[in-house]
Amino acid sequence: MGRRIVLGMLGLGAFGVATGAHLQKGVNEALEPIGDFVPVGGGFRYYSVVSSVRRRTAQDYRLKVSGRVERPRTFTMAELAALPQTSLTRDFQCVTGWRVPDVEWGGVALPDLLDACGADPDAAALTITSFDGVYTESLTMKQARRRDVLVATSMYGKPVTHDHGGPVRLHVTPMYAYKSLKWLGGIEVVDKVEPGYWELRGYDVDAWVGRSNGRADVPTA
After folding, report:
1. Are 102 and 161 found together in one domain?
2. Cβ–Cβ contacts within 10 Å for residue 208, how many?
3. Which structural domain range is residue 18 located in?
4. C-alpha dist (Å) from residue 195 to 10, 128, 210
5. Same domain, 83 and 147
6. How would DSSP label each residue in the chain?
7. What was the pLDDT predicted at 49?
8. Who's near 148: CB < 8 A, 6+ residues apart?
9. For residue range 17-73, what is the model confidence (pLDDT) as tens digits?
10. Name one Pfam family in it (predicted).
11. Is the pLDDT of residue 143 over 80?
12. CA-based angle 53:85:148, to the nearest 5?
């Protein structure tokens, strides 16, 4: 069911889908890892390649920041709440074509988190990992220093739910949603960009909204 729905979404996506057999084969290969597609409230759609992600509560959640930092730290929810807080309202755009307007996010701006740990300004990038043990993402240091990139702890004024990647997720406002890694567990400051889960499957490393994303021979809607 999930696979058929996702393929249907691709067919109706903003960029359209070519009909050639070769392109369809490429789409099928790109979607092969998808395990679940579950609609959730507010117009969002929930994707996961893991059939079951262990839930973490505000009490047992931890975010590890490591690598090229002066002060490696593991943050609890309370410690994240004690850092300067940032809120913003922006559209949430998926590369498959759907969009949710005016989503309210709150949390710690990623630059503030990096400053709290003394991130090396000469480091090139971040490697970001999910506590589900599967998803990874990356940002250049310049991208990570944007004020519209959040370690998000709230959504619409409430804690981020598990289905939306909570209790803490990344929110990279100017990029497509696959860069906004769910179930955030670790941030490592590193020397070079390491392609994340979806990039290794053909999606663009730099996923600015409005640009065509995905492999040249695989339409991604």
Report:
1. yes
2. 13
3. 2-48
4. 23, 10, 20
5. yes
6. -HHHHHHHHHHTSTT-----HHHHHHHHHHHTT--EEEE-GGG-EEEESSS------TTT--EEEEESBSS-EEE-HHHHHHSPPEEEEEEEE-TTS-EEEEEEEEEEEHHHHHHHHTB-TT--EEEEEETTSS-EEEEEHHHHT-TTEEEEEEETTEEPPTTTT-SSEEEETTB-GGGS-SSEEEEEEESS----TTGGGT--SS-BTTS--S-TTS---
7. 72
8. 88, 90, 173, 174
9. 333 334 334 334 444 444 444 455 557 877 677 667 889 999 999 999 999 999 999
10. Oxidored_molyb
11. yes
12. 75
Other CB atoms within 10 A of residue 182 CB: 25
The identity of residue 215, as a single letter, is R
In this structure, what CATH number is given to the domain that contains residue 82?
A: 3.90.420.10
| Mean model confidence pLDDT for the chain | 81
pLDDT surpasses 50 at 3: no
Predicted local distance difference test score (pLDDT) of residue 18: 37
Asked if 30 contacts 9 with a C-beta cutoff of 8 angstroms, the reply is no
Q: Residue 61: which of 29, 98, 107, 15 has the closest Cα? A: 107
Q: Tokens 């492999």 label which residue?
A: 215
What mean pLDDT do residues 99-118 have?
A: 97
Based on its alpha-carbon atoms, the radius of gyration of the chain, rounded to whole angstroms, reads 17
Domain identity same for 6 and 83:
no
| pLDDT average, residue stretch 118-133 | 96
Average pLDDT over residues 196-210: 93
